[in-house]
Sequence to fold (324 residues):
Amino acid sequence: MNILILSCGTRNKIVQYFRRTLAGGRGNVIATDCSAIAPALYEADRHYIVPRMTDAGYLDVIYDICKKEQITGVLSLIDPELSLLAEHEEAFRQLGVTVIGSAYALCEMTLDKFQMYHWLKEHGYLCARSYMDKAEFFRDAEAGEITYPVFVKPARGSASIAISKVSDRETVDLLFAHDEGLMIQEFLDGQEIGADVYIDMISGEIVSIFTKKKIKMRAGETDKAVSFKDEKLFALIQRFVKEAGFRGQIDIDIFEIGGEYYISEVNPRFGGGYPHAYECGADHMKLICNNLEGKANAPVIGEYRSDVYMMKYNEIMIRTEDEI
Ligand SMILES: Nc1ncnc2c1ncn2[C@@H]1O[C@H](COP(=O)(O)OP(=O)(O)O)[C@@H](O)[C@H]1O
Ligand SMILES: [Mg+2]
Fold:
């Protein structure tokens, strides 16, 4: 069994964990990136420098790698590529390759925070009240239905880029005058939580949930966190994931306010904080490999170590010019 990890970037741990799972001759891990100085490339059994995913002919390059390396399963670590893989799932299937990810419509929905908000509201989940229409927001603010501070962010943003906590109308006006596609969101004043979830690709059942409380964020990523378990949260995640129909690996941002859980956003891929889950025993690489071998997984929900702290720190990769 051979796994292809696209746009591996700096996600060295993900490559390492897959290699550990496939060690002893079970298979190879192949990684790609459009940059030769993406450090995770050098963790893989073999790697390829490929065009940008937006370039014409990108997929043909990926299909060729699939054939040459006899790939069994493919996944991407960046948001914009998730829809691309989902859209071409059938072409991959014809090459004997399983796309490890959710369906196209779900990938698209999670890219758009406003679309996600509508879905959550319509399906009765607690979530932050959101607006794309500035006038509508100002009307509600005047009527006292929403109060400052609020969060202003790009509806299709990521990595906390261009996110502001705003305390007055003038700043909302100013931000909207300078940017397109902004969204105003109620401030969720509570404990931030991250969930790493695996939905079995054969049975369709949710088989693993890992949850952590975020202690410190840095540059849009969880820098420090502690694992915990709560049956009420597990039940909410199960209901949500089932109803939305996600598949494979997903990452969910949640806020806890006064004992209630608010769903904030979903990334249908391995999140940047996944190593915390793995190190606590939520081994999703094993679950993926079982699925790729045609075996459904039995549920192991909540089977991980609680009260374990994750503290991120930097590492470096060194290669000479002729090695890259
Ligand atoms: N409505 C909100 N209430 C409180 N904090 C927020 C809100 N929106 C965003 N944040 C903060 O900004 C971070 C990034 O926002 P998020 O909506 O997850 O976008 P991204 O796609 O950039 O991760 C969150 O993890 C949280 O710390
Ligand atoms: Mg987020």
Remarks:
- The pocket of magnesium ion (ligand 2) is lined by residues 253, 265 (CB under 6 Å).
- The chain has three domains: 3-100, 129-186, 189-311.
- The chain has a mean pLDDT of 97.
- The chain is about 30% helix and 25% strand.
